[in-house]
Automatic annotation (TrEMBL):
Organism: Polynucleobacter arcticus
Domain Glycosyl transferase family stretches: 133-290
The protein's name in its UniProt record: TIGR04348 family glycosyltransferase
Entries under SUPFAM superfamilies matching the protein: UDP-Glycosyltransferase/glycogen phosphorylase
GO molecular function: glycosyltransferase activity
One matching Pfam family: Glycos_transf_1
Lineage: Bacteria, Pseudomonadati, Pseudomonadota, Betaproteobacteria, Burkholderiales
Length: 317
């Protein structure tokens, strides 16, 4: 029997937060490799050979307690977007967690630029994989655009709302917005947009399967985030071959590539509207997005992520 591993994620049981989905995917890979794996919200105190923690800031106490109890046992820290692009500057616990960890994992290549040079030797990229078993091709509706992600400030969820009135009147774009509102004012505003914008429909939180089904029906997916560590929904769009219109941030560039033609400046609703209309009305532009998405598929193959995780853990245990 191989060693036991505990994965700590602050995302609660049953949630569809990206951190929880990452933890469950790693659990699946590690169990297939023969390890005993438990996923918790904070370290349980159990005698485990390796602690894998998501979120340097919110899992800081788990990392400290584990290292105090087992100073010679390894900690793997998976850095999130909020760790890298917000909390590192504001909370010293982020750097402390990184110093205590034996390995630092980032989910896209541009995140390596944020790692302090003194810690870079223990950092590596492991791309999030996607395995989607679609029973049959799903017909695409008349230029449906999907946005998938909880409604919170980091996602700039209403950039799309600001862009829709800027589309030419002949555009046939329709938007479906999936995700739970993380505050009452956001929920109220999304409901208001449902009634005032003909092109917009906020559906709220749906199951992962339903989200993938709507994504597969889409012509485009929009991700307008102000910060991302490497959004899993981008990997899902790549796996399904759905072109992405993305905010120009390192977390998106690290997944889609510097030469991807579908970026717009963060928060720029006019630039977003222009890209959406170009994709709708210019077949050559849409084809260039599609080609770049297809080129990225090899990076998010499950066998690649499984091998990376196997090499990581076997080198520590």
């Amino acid at each position: 029997m191989k060693s036991s591993i505990e994965i700590v994620t602050p995302a609660p049981l049953g949630s569809l937060h990206g951190n929880r989905m990452t933890a469950l995917r790693w659990q699946g890979f590690l169990e297939k490799l023969g390890y005993l794996v438990e996923v918790t919200e904070s370290w349980s105190g159990d005698d485990t050979a390796v602690l894998i923690a998501l979120h340097a800031y919110r899992s800081h106490q788990s990392i400290v307690r584990f290292k105090e109890t087992y100073p010679n046992r390894p900690v793997v820290l998976i850095l999130t977007g909020t760790d890298l692009y917000r909390d590192m500057e504001n909370h010293r616990e982020v750097i402390q967690s990184m110093q205590l960890a034996d390995r630092l994992i980032v989910l896209q290549s541009s995140a390596l630029d944020l790692i302090p040079p003194s810690l870079l030797d223990k950092a590596q990229v492991i791309y999030q994989s996607v395995e989607i078993n679609a029973p049959s091709p799903t017909p695409k509706e008349d230029f449906l655009v999907s946005i998938i992600g909880h409604l919170r400030d980091e996602k700039d969820p209403f950039c799309i709302v600001r862009s829709l009135p800027l589309l030419p009147s002949d555009s046939k774009i329709q938007v479906r917005h999936l995700g739970q509102a993380m505050s009452a004012p956001m929920a109220e505003f999304a409901k208001q947009c449902n009634t005032t914008l003909d092109r917009y429909q906020w559906i709220g939180e749906v199951s992962h399967l339903n989200a993938l089904q709507i994504l597969s029906q889409s012509r485009l997916m929009v991700i307008s985030s102000r910060m991302e560590g490497g959004a899993h929904v981008v990997s899902e769009a790549i796996a399904l071959g759905i072109p992405v219109i993305a905010s120009d941030i390192p977390g998106n560039r690290g997944l889609l590539g510097d030469d991807y033609p579908g970026y717009f400046p963060v928060g720029d609703a006019k630039a977003l509207a222009d890209l959406l209309y170009r994709a709708e009305t210019m077949p050559t532009f849409y084809a260039s997005l599609q080609q770049q998405i297809d080129l990225r598929k090899e990076w998010i193959h499950p066998a690649r992520e499984k091998q990376s995780i196997q090499e990581l853990v076997s080198g520590l245990v």
